[in-house]
Amino acid sequence: MAKRIDVSGLHAYYGPVHAIEDISMTIEPRSVTAFIGPSGCGKSTFLRTLNRMHEVVPGARVEGKVMLDDQDLYDPSVDPVAVRRLVGMVFQRPNPFPTMSIYDNVAAGLKLNGVRRKSQLDDIVEESLRGANLWNEVKDRLGKPGAGLSGGQQQRLCIARAIAVQPQVLLMDEPCSALDPISTLAIEDLIAKLKTQYTIVIVTHNMQQAARVSDRTAFFNIAGTGKPGRLIELDETSKIFTNPDQKATEDYITGRFG
Ligand SMILES: Nc1ncnc2c1ncn2[C@@H]1O[C@H](COP(=O)(O)OP(=O)(O)OP(=O)(O)O)[C@@H](O)[C@H]1O
């Protein structure tokens, strides 16, 4: 199911603002790639270009190429809604549909995709909640609202909702920043488990987290206020954190700036 992402010469704009400049990278399947870098360097913007969410902002546009295996995501014939089905996203704050039951939160995307048979929905809801390490905690209250779960449970519910539609890639934008340390560990364990099946990209401000969960790390930076963000270096996480090629990477990971 997991696919490789190949980005070349990618620029993103918000109206006249040039937010990220000339980014090229390969994101490997069945592994976790972390994006780190100072605030405003374009990590979230770049993440959202990978499932065509960037263009949802009025006036925003993208130049360059994003390939998902051999499919060009920005080809004019490609439907952005179909892209978002292939490339799922989990956000910073858990955002379950608040009035919907736990069951319906997971089933919503499946129903939109035309799955109607109750037994099939039941199976996929259970499988997705198990996949998100949440089944045992919620199996006796599937009809209760998603909003009644703890923050960490809600984030795992959002991950169950994302994987229910069987994406190829999971993008996570600071998925633990609103969570306590125990819930954070639960999500990190889950990421380690999910990477055997998915291509995972995670934006994180927490360098220990990047070091714990990722196989490869990309460091982004900006030359100054108003300048576009750039990719400085992408390599094995162990190398980035012990012996990076670029001085700017070393300064950042040793806490000299950012
Ligand atoms: N909706 C928007 N409209 C205009 N400019 C935006 C918008 N969203 C982001 N930007 C600008 O694009 C640049 C990159 O922002 P982005 O949020 O991608 O950075 P980031 O590295 O994810 O930051 P942080 O770590 O603080 O979340 C910033 O200069 C930001 O002000």
TrEMBL record:
Keywords tagged on the record: ATP-binding, Cell membrane, Membrane, Nucleotide-binding, Phosphate transport, Translocase, Transport
Span of domain ABC transporter: 5-247
Major localisation: membrane
Entry keyword Cell membrane: yes
Membrane topology: Peripheral membrane protein
The keyword Nucleotide-binding belongs to this UniProt entry's keyword annotation: yes
GO BP annotations, alphabetical order: phosphate ion transmembrane transport
Intracellular or extracellular location(s): Cell inner membrane
Stored CDD domains: ABC_PstB_phosphate_transporter
Superkingdom of this protein's organism: Bacteria
GO annotations of cellular component type: plasma membrane
Gene3D superfamilies (alphabetical): P-loop containing nucleotide triphosphate hydrolases
GO MF term (any one): ATP hydrolysis activity
PANTHER family: ABC TRANSPORTER I FAMILY MEMBER 17
NCBIfam families membership: 3a0107s01c2
Job of this protein: Part of the ABC transporter complex PstSACB involved in phosphate import. Responsible for energy coupling to the transport system.
UniProt name for this protein: Phosphate ABC transporter ATP-binding protein (PhoT family)
Lineage of origin: Bacteria, Bacillati, Actinomycetota, Actinomycetes, Streptosporangiales
